[in-house]
Amino acid sequence: xxxxxxxxxxxxxxxxxxxxxxxxxxxxxxxxxxxxxxxxxxxxxxxxxxxxxxxxxxxxxxxxxxxxxxxxxxxxxxxxxxxxxxxxxxxxxxxxxxxxxxxxxxxxxxxxxxxxxxxxxxxxxxxxxxxxxxxxxxxxxxxxxxxxxxxxxxxxxxxxxxxxxxxxxxxxxxxxxxxxxxxxxxxxxxxxxxxxxxxxxxxxxxxxxxxxxxxxxxxxxxxxxxxxxxxxxxxxxxxxxxxxxxxxxxxxxxxxxxxxxxxxxxxxxx
Length: 270
What we know:
This protein is an alpha/beta fold. Helices cover 40% and strands 20% of the residues. It has helices at 9-15, 20-26, 34-42, 53-58, 60-68, 78-84, 104-107, 124-137, 154-159, 175-184, 204-207, 224-227, 247-266, and strands at residues 28-32, 46-52, 72-76, 93-98, 114-118, 141-145, 169-172, 188-192, 198-199, 211-215, 232-235. Strand 5 (114-118), helix 8 (124-137) and strand 6 form a beta-alpha-beta unit. The model has no long low-confidence stretch (mean pLDDT 95).
């Protein structure tokens, strides 16, 4: 098998997927590293796998799985692997995958019980972490509302630790449409707010209902006009001296609180 270089057309085409415009145009993106590639293969989203000779030895099980699933495997040079990566230390294992986002109507349905709705989230690491947390607590979907980061951004995919392949992720630039869709589906909308009228510690009865949590931008928080559209604004009690919580931390606390209450309510009485 010939080794592919950074000038090989297949590699050149894949490298272009590091750009948002190319991902949007082709409907494909790159997932790198053992965790992401393994989950991509399990989800049957992989078109092609690029791997260095050294990485093929380290990740032999992953490469064998790709070949078992009839995924085209290309051995690439270290320089080609570096071009395919946006990390400081490329793992030498990169998959070309189908993009994952679904229509809003598929992510938000009358059957939805728990949804994470970050609004205008800009930092891909935070978006990926939020997707990972949503997966961990058993949320039904993540909806990236407003001018949010592309979930197929390399840092977002890595930060999700494979979770981006586990649950529906929708993108909708029109935040008003997101809020209207949630209301039509019968999902209550809760917003985090430092001056919220309900303390999270006292919200168990509220959290038992189907819920969509709105989370604001990292720098500016949730737009007041968007927060005003929520059914309730909930404050997370801070008992120490920290002034506030970052997006990923606040989302983790709120989503876990909802999942705890909903899971408890769903358990049969013995």
